[in-house]
Design goal:
The longest helix is centred in the N-terminal third of the chain and has 24 residues. The chain is of the alpha+beta class.
Length: 940
């Protein structure tokens, strides 16, 4: 399983960001290579503690095959440490990053020692899993135990007891035997003395003369003691290597105390000790760590491995590790932490510290220092055992993880989080600056038309173009999609306008994505620090609000944020809140647009279209509230309501005797991913006694492009019920043909963009003709959308398109009108323009409007454009592209014509013929507006 697949199994949302250890990770699908280049074992637990992902190093450490590692962590822990490990895991699930050392159970049942870090994986404020990093430190732990064992053996070897002890008279050369000597020589114990000759006979000839020489020197008073190694003949006839030590006996000037030590065992012990010391030295040098023993009182290094020199790259003078030498090599940023660490160590507390070493050539080396104090029997500190690791690569890995969290993978630019941090750092300088949000407005179109690979090329090209055009001192970051943010200092000619105009020139030159050259409409929104806000997130939001205003223009443009709350943002906020109650308050309803036979006009089907009549904002276009529902689970409730309402209406029509035709409803792509949708459809059809053939589900390519197995299963199940599947907007995407082969599609709806130019566009006619031919071969029904003129109808008839849907035959109509259509069964074409000509205002005066209050809320908003059409003594009729509440809103209006400028305040009381009705709040202002209108000359 890949890292991306593992995250899919535990994430709560497809869109919300995922954080590991507090850092946001973007582009999960591109992170796999990053984890496989690490030297440590990487693994991921789900919230229950089961391993769901790991890199190649975990099987190497634990010895298990890859398919056996997807188990609970208890499988790989010895029973005696399960309680402690479980506590660390629970702390990670509570949002804490924990570090600990534990033993892991190897596949061959031996234990390995691991240094482990666990970090919480969070999404939407919830911990959804645990991210782990493990390093095998088994050899280092074994090394500590070996050092202790060797020290004990050395102490034991140095305390070997004496083998033989006796006294020797230097004048009489008599030997005063001891039981140990008699036993060694094989003599009877009742002998009170032994002549020197009997002992000398047993000495090996090679050692005889040296020994006699030393004895004579002692007898002559030239020395008081001496030592010599010699071989002595034992009672079993073999020579034994001994060490003789002679010391003049206290109080007996002519006697010497002689001690014989058995050197054979000592020699073997020495050889063993020498070998073990060499082995330990080899281990010290092989382990990638610096091992040392330090006298904390004097600072003297009692012992150090070669790794100490590798890390510090030099040794202190006289091996004295004092504060001056150490702090001169540690980065100043870590001095305080080191002083506190040493203080705790001197108090007898073991600990670990990570700090930076700085070298004369500017290099920085990260080290991890683990200090373990060793105590005397009286409780005082004898020395400290130190193990140092070079963790520079680990820190580089952590920095890469941070960069992964703060950098956009595709563009290489700082992401939104990095932008916010940069804004905060700029704010700390207390210098005014501008935040510019820039959009190229084409990424969705490019992804749908050419695929996400071309979309990535577009992002890289737009980022590069911005980087080339922007001034050097401007900071550039990536917001998402083909939207970017720039931070511009007021040093830029004290005005951001030249910078914005420079960015707009991008739209005049094509941007290449192989093999295409595309133009972009550049939209820019600008906010100012500190005038608009002193909060980094607010500044970005305000610049984006101004960006949305720029998008209303049909050309490249920029706008400044002009208030602390934009009316569009307020409207979106209110709609999002009220949408939760739209169903229970009975504000949603359906309208129906018929589909007809292109030759006879006979109604052959209809499409149910959802509408929202808001009590304050009037009729809300589906394009405004459907995306809001998609951002939450509301789309499920709304989709289910449409299914229920459409089937219920069909049942009511059947009772009136109307001839029923198939009804199609639009289905959200996300709805197909939720199990049980087909059962709900089946139960609804049964409840309203509706033939499945009378229901049709319209889906878009967005539902299919994800290629999710659940989507395929749901569509197959729905088709098996007898419900038809229609593919909407056919021909608009780049891969529609594949869907016809892969999914159970029954109907294709030719996208309305072909109808727009079908009359005089030979290419459009050729494409439609190809679609009709293919549909005929696949035995699919075809409906052409967006037919509004007789010329378009004639062209589709010529191309033999069998079914038509569009304003030429009918706009979407209420249920009672649709009932009349069904009874009549046949519709006749009517030019669409004739239906709307009477709603077009014939007279207008340009002006400006801004909302002052809505209910009890007050605002300071920017002015928007309006057109005033007529007035009475009480009511002003006007229209504006800025959506306004249909009542309970007070607005300031300014009208101007030539040199005349008049101002008034009105309260919106409703709408009529697509125009707002504003009631004057002041009679004097109403009179001024009346005189203003009377002074104007009407120009037809």
């Amino acid at each position: 399983m890949t890292f991306f697949e593992a995250m899919k199994t535990i994430r709560r949302s497809d869109t919300a960001p995922i954080h590991i250890g507090g850092l946001e990770v973007s582009r999960l699908e591109q992170s796999e290579a990053f984890f496989h280049h690490q030297t440590d074992a990487i693994f991921v637990f789900d919230a229950a503690g089961t391993i769901i992902y790991f890199n190649e190093h975990l099987p190497e450490i634990l010895g298990y095959s890859e398919h056996t590692l997807y188990e609970h962590f208890s499988v790989f822990n010895p029973p005696d440490q399960m309680e402690a490990v479980s506590q660390f895991f629970q702390r990670a699930l509570q949002g804490e990053t924990v570090h600990y050392t534990a033993r892991g159970l190897h596949a061959d049942q031996h234990l390995v020692t691991l240094k482990i870090t666990n970090m919480p994986i969070e999404q939407e404020g919830h911990v959804i899993g645990v991210y782990g990093v493990a390093r095998d430190v088994t050899r280092e732990k074994q090394l500590e135990e070996d050092v202790s064992e060797i020290r004990s053996q050395l102490e034991l070897t140095e305390q070997v007891p004496e083998l033989v002890l006796f006294y020797y008279d230097l004048r009489s050369h008599q030997i005063e035997p001891s039981p140990s000597l008699l036993k060694f020589l094989g003599l009877r114990e009742e002998q009170s003395s032994i002549e020197q000759q009997r002992l000398l006979e047993r000495i090996h000839p090679w050692d005889f003369d040296p020994l006699r020489f030393e004895i004579e020197r002692m007898a002559a008073g030239k020395q008081d003691q001496f030592e010599q190694e010699l071989s002595l003949l034992t009672s079993d006839g073999s020579y034994q290597l001994l060490r003789l030590k002679a010391v003049r006996r206290a109080g007996h000037a002519h006697q010497a105390s002689i001690v014989l030590y058995d050197l054979s065992e000592i020699d073997a012990a020495r050889q063993q000790l020498k070998m073990e010391r060499a082995q330990a030295r080899d281990i010290y040098e092989a382990v990638n760590a610096a091992i040392s023993q330090i006298d904390l009182t004097t600072g003297r290094i009692l012992f150090h491995s070669q790794g100490f020199l590798h890390i510090y790259e030099e040794l202190p003078k006289n091996l004295i590790l004092n504060d001056t030498w150490l702090l001169s090599r540690i980065d100043p940023r870590d001095h305080d932490a080191m002083r506190k660490f040493m203080q705790r160590l001197l108090q007898g507390h073991a600990g670990t510290l990570q700090y930076r070493l700085r070298f004369p050539d500017g290099r920085i080396k990260w080290v991890e220092d683990q200090q373990i104090p060793i105590f005397h029997s009286d409780g005082s500190i004898a020395y400290s055992n130190s193990i140092l690791h070079d963790i520079t690569l680990q820190k580089a890995y952590e920095e890469q993880l941070r960069q992964l969290a703060l950098r956009d993978v595709v563009t290489g630019l700082p992401n939104r989080q990095a932008l916010i941090e940069t804004i905060e750092s700029w704010q700390a300088r207390t210098v005014p600056f501008f935040v510019l949000s820039v959009s190229f407005n084409r990424i969705t179109e490019i992804n749908n038309a050419f695929g996400h690979g071309s979309g990535d090329q577009w992002l890289q090209a737009t980022a590069a173009r911005l980087n080339d055009v922007k001034p050097d001192e401007v900071f550039l970051g990536h917001l998402g999609g083909d939207e970017y943010a720039l931070l511009v200092s007021t040093d830029y000619e004290q005005d951001v306008t030249p910078c914005a105009e420079r960015l707009l020139t991008i739209s005049t030159h094509p941007i290449s994505i192989e093999p295409y050259a595309l133009f972009a409409r550049v939209s820019i929104g600008i906010s100012r620090y500190p005038q608009d806000s002193t909060d980094a997130v607010e500044l970005l939001k305000h610049s984006y609000t101004a960006l949305r205003r720029s998008r209303r223009d049909d050309h490249s443009a920029f706008h400044h944020y002009a208030s602390n709350l934009d009316i569009d943002y307020y409207r979106r906020y209110r709609l999002e809140q009220d949408l939760h109650y739209a169903i229970e308050r009975d504000q949603l309803f359906l309208e129906y647009q018929p589909k007809v036979d292109s030759w006879t006009g006979k109604i052959v089907g209809m499409e149910a279209l959802i509408r929202w009549q808001h009590p304050e904002w009037g009729r809300i276009p589906p394009n405004d509230f459907i995306p809001l529902s998609e951002e939450s689970a509301l789309h499920i409730d709304i989709g289910d309501w449409v299914l229920e309402a459409a089937c219920r209406q069909m049942n009511e029509w059947s009772k009136t005797g109307a001839s029923l035709v198939p009804i199609s409803i639009n289905v959200s792509p996300k709805r197909l991913l939720i199990p049980g949708f087909e059962h709900q459809i089946e139960q609804t059809l049964i409840r309203y006694a509706l033939d499945p053939a009378l229901l049709e589900l319209e889906i878009t390519e967005a539902a299919l492009i994800m290629d999710d197995p659940m989507t395929s299963r749901t569509l197959e199940s729905v088709s098996a019920l007898g419900v038809r599947i229609a593919l909407d907007d056919f021909g608009k995407g780049y891969s529609s043909m594949v869907y016809l082969q892969r999914y159970p599609i029954d109907v294709i709806k030719i996208d309305r963009q072909f109808a727009t130019h079908i009359y005089d566009d030979a290419k459009a006619q050729a494409i439609v003709k190809s679609i009709l031919y293919m549909a005929n071969e696949f035995n699919l029904h075809v409906v052409a959308e967006g037919i509004e003129t007789i010329q378009q109808l004639d062209t589709f008839r010529m191309l033999e398109c069998p079914r038509i849907q569009g304003y030429l035959f009918s706009r979407p109509v209420p249920s009672d009108v649709m009932e009349g259509f069904l009874i009549r069964e046949i519709l006749y074409p009517i030019e669409a323009c004739a239906l709307s000509s009477d709603t077009v205002p014939r007279f207008s005066v340009p002006g400006k409007i801004r909302m002052l209050t809505h209910h009890t809320e007050s605002f300071t908003l920017a002015f928007s454009d309006l057109q005033a059409h007529q007035t009475s003594t009480k009511i002003l009729y006007f229209s504006t592209e800025t959506p306004l509440p249909s009542h309970a809103a007070t607005c300031e209006i300014r009208l101007n014509e030539g040199l005349q400028l008049v101002t008034c305040t009105v309260t919106i009381i409703g709408q009529q013929d697509g125009q707002y009705m504003g009631e004057y709040t002041n009679e004097t202002e109403a009179e001024q507006i009346m005189r203003f209108f009377q002074s104007l000359r009407y120009t037809p």
